[in-house]
């Protein structure tokens, strides 16, 4: 019986610590585990899908943190999901919104290395529940052809409702 109690206490401690690690939220969002408001699945106007999770750096720094996730592009020869990582910050002047930046290196097991990466930067507005981004896609080119290595554009991501 004693071993079972210790095991259950250990599981409870792991569960509580796991729930708290990176999940502590700012004072106005303490009941949520989504400090930046964008954790979830999103689609842009081209049909590309992004899945994002936000994690605060620490409870002491309750307005900035890490973005991790995956991206499935509906354009080009992309297949499967590509990992993404980035950062967010919650503006002091409007804490319901969020400034975001994340990068996708176009290299995965399904397709291999496409010698390119895309950086997205933008703002999540809670009132519209959309993420408005600008992006820069950079492809590897030799130094003499560097003038043609980047494309710039924008996307609006809309949340995909959970069924």
From TrEMBL:
What InterPro entries does the database record attribute to this sequence? Avidin, Avidin-like_sf, Avidin/str, Avidin/Streptavidin-rel
Signal peptide bounds: 1-18
- Cellular-component GO terms for this entry: extracellular region
Does the keyword section mention Signal? yes
SUPFAM superfamilies in the record, alphabetically? Avidin/streptavidin
Pfam families found in the cross-reference section: Avidin (PF01382)
Compartment annotation:
Secreted
Q: Which residues form a coiled coil?
A: none
Q: Which UniProt keywords apply?
A: Biotin, Disulfide bond, Glycoprotein, Secreted, Signal
- Molecular-function GO term, any one: biotin binding
Major subcellular site? secreted
Extract the Gene3D superfamilies matched here: Avidin-like
The entry sums up its family as follows: Belongs to the avidin/streptavidin family.
Q: What is this protein called?
A: Uncharacterized protein
Name the species this protein comes from. Answer: Mytilus coruscus (Sea mussel)
Where is the organism placed in the taxonomic lineage, from the top?
A: Eukaryota, Metazoa, Spiralia, Lophotrochozoa, Mollusca
């Amino acid at each position: 019986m004693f071993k079972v109690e210790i095991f259950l206490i250990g599981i409870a401690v792991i569960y509580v610590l796991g729930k708290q690690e990176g999940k502590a939220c700012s004072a106005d969002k303490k009941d949520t585990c989504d400090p930046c408001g964008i954790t979830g699945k999103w689609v842009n106007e081209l049909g590309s899908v992004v899945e994002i999770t936000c994690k605060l750096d620490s409870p002491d720094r309750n307005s900035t943190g890490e973005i991790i996730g995956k991206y499935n592009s509906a354009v080009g020869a992309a297949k499967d999901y590509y990992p993404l990582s980035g950062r967010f910050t919650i503006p002091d002047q409007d804490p319901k919104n969020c400034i975001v930046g994340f990068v996708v290196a176009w290299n995965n097991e399904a397709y291999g290395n496409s010698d390119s990466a895309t950086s997205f930067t933008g703002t999540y507005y809670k009132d519209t529940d959309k993420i408005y981004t600008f992006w820069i896609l950079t492809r590897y080119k030799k130094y003499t052809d560097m003038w043609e290595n980047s494309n710039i554009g924008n996307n609006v991501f809309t949340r995909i409702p959970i069924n």
